[in-house]
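Structure first, sequence second, as always.
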């Protein structure tokens, strides 16, 4: 089986969030299968090139029509990342920028990427069985294949976050030789197009990254207009829970940790308790926090409204009132939230109980996961969420809002603590419950920790589910709207 993933991110060379982790984890774990897997990515100016092996030019010039004329100069590169075959579309005009996203012309950049990826496959006479496309950035591949290209591949679209849909002016269609039609139009602004909706309409099957989120976003009464679209094609939509890369996120061998531990027990006391204690001491020293007998509560997140910054703040205040310490590692791309947290950081400067690190810091994130006691994920919505699974693997108990993939992975009093309504009262109560357990019920706390550490969140199960789906859709006939 030949599978080609088309996506905007892949860790560690081009990662903004969970999408990058998924591309890396899924492709790497697929190598154990009898399949040829390739990932196509843009050649961003910010690619971590030292992580790419055998990087070589594959096509000095890829030419095709774009915007009714010859496309800007484009090259194709190939290389290997952790054993994964990666093909890069290199067009200076669109991808030699200071980041992956966030540019005014993002829709045209990724429309170009979709067309270039298909041209590369076509001009090399490739005939993959599966085109696996990810999020709105790659969604145009589906209508382009069904209308303008001769591929017989089945198409799977995975939605990593329904919040980002690629809404843009319908002028884009003319530039890539697609006609305006209902399947492409935005459900709210019919003069605009919605790229994710186009991907949903023309794919053979749509998945998202957890069963819980699948249920939430395909509810006909859901607040997002695309929920109705997903509801209408429920028979070709499902959630497959993401995994985490358990060799990268492994407390037994993590190169970022000064000492290692696992869930093995020697005698009555699990040795990881002592190791985690030492790591906590090191983290406290590093961040200028007081050494004392108190729980260390942590959160690591992009500070967008999705991650519930006001709930994180409430949890911080309550933790301090209850005698705990708090560490926050986060970057805040959105102006107001960034300013708010920067002010707060200034106000708390010199505190021996709170530390804010308002940057992206991969190395520090490993130590925070390993050294903390309680890990917060109070998201307003969460397609899957990786941080709660990473925290559990490092023996750090998650406290989450029960939504999407968080509800599929964290169970109250079993492997973590959960709360329902996204209110200040609810998170405060949940913090109280968790800290009471830490202070007054040490044996129960240990049981919860161990339960989390024992769980298998590797990619093995997800890869099985994806391959079962690939086989199912390869067997089925006339699935997509485009082939009806
Ligand atoms: P999302 O994709 O919505 O950002 P996920 O939970 O799916 O959320 O994935 C977040 C990933 O990004 C995790 O691997 C987490 O450790 C990492 N991460 C987020 N913020 C930071 C940060 N400031 N520093 C280091 N890693 C971070």
């Amino acid at each position: 089986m030949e599978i080609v993933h088309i996506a905007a991110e892949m860790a560690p060379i081009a990662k903004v969030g969970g999408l990058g982790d998924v591309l890396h984890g899924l492709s790497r774990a697929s190598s154990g299968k009898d399949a040829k897997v390739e990932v196509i990515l843009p050649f961003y100016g910010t690619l971590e090139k030292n992580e790419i092996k055998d990087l070589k030019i594959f096509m000095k010039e890829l030419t095709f029509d774009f915007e009714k004329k010859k496309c800007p100069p484009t090259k194709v590169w190939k290389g290997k990342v952790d054993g994964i075959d990666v093909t890069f579309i290199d067009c200076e005009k669109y991808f030699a920028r200071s980041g992956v996203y966030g540019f005014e012309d993002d829709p045209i950049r990724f429309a170009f990427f979709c067309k270039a990826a298909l041209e590369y496959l076509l001009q090399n006479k490739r005939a993959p069985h599966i085109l696996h496309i990810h999020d709105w950035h790659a969604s145009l591949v589906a209508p382009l294949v069904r209308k303008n290209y001769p591929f017989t591949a089945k198409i799977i679209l995975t939605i990593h976050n329904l919040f980002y849909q690629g809404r843009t002016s319908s002028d884009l269609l003319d530039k890539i030789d697609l006609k305006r039609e209902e399947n492409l139009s935005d459900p709210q602004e019919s003069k605009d197009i919605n790229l994710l909706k186009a991907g949903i309409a023309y794919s053979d099957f749509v998945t998202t990254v957890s069963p819980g989120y699948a249920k939430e976003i395909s509810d006909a009464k859901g607040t997002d207009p695309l929920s109705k679209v997903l509801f209408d094609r429920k028979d070709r939509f499902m959630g497959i829970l993401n995994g985490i890369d358990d060799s990268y996120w492994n407390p037994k061998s993590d190169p970022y940790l000064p000492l290692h531990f696992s869930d093995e027990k020697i005698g009555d006391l699990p040795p990881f308790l002592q190791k985690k204690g030492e790591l906590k001491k090191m983290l406290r020293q590093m961040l200028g926090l007081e050494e004392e007998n108190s729980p260390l509560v942590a959160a690591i997140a992009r500070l967008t409204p999705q991650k519930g910054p006001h709930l994180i703040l409430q949890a911080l205040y309550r933790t301090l009132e209850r005698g705990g310490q708090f560490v926050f590692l986060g970057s805040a791309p959105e102006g107001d939230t960034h300013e708010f947290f920067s002010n707060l950081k200034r106000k708390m400067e010199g505190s021996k109980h709170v530390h804010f690190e308002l940057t992206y810091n991969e190395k520090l994130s490993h130590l925070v996961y390993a050294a903390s006691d309680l890990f917060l994920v109070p998201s307003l919505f969460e397609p899957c969420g990786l941080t709660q699974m990473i925290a559990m693997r490092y023996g750090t108990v998650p406290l989450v809002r029960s939504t999407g993939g968080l509800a599929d992975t964290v169970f109250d009093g079993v492997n973590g603590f959960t709360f329902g309504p996204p209110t200040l009262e609810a998170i405060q109560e949940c913090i109280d419950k968790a800290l009471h357990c830490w202070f007054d019920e040490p044996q129960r706390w240990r049981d919860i920790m161990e339960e989390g550490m024992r769980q298998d969140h590797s990619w093995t199960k997800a890869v099985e589910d994806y391959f079962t789906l690939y086989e199912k859709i390869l067997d089925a006939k006339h699935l997509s709207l485009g082939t009806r």
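Margin note: The chain has a mean pLDDT of 94.
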